[in-house]
Design brief:
Layout lengths: L2 H19 L4 H18 L18
């Protein structure tokens, strides 16, 4: 599988998990969000903050 096919597969998986989030109960939502985060880490699109408030978009203003 070439890198583009792999990226598309991971993106499709993330999108399907996000669609499933809408109808899931609370515990399932937590599981789905963890799965999505792991896939985003694999893709390199996850935005993780180290706790520095200057780095956070919500806290840094």
């Amino acid at each position: 599988m070439n890198p583009l096919e792999r990226r598309n597969m991971l993106t499709n998986k993330i999108n399907s998990l996000k669609a499933e989030l809408e109808e899931a109960d609370f515990m399932r939502k937590l599981e789905l969000k963890d799965e999505i985060l792991e896939l985003e880490k694999e893709l390199g699109t996850a935005k993780l903050y180290n706790g520095d408030s200057d780095e956070c978009e919500m806290c840094g203003s």
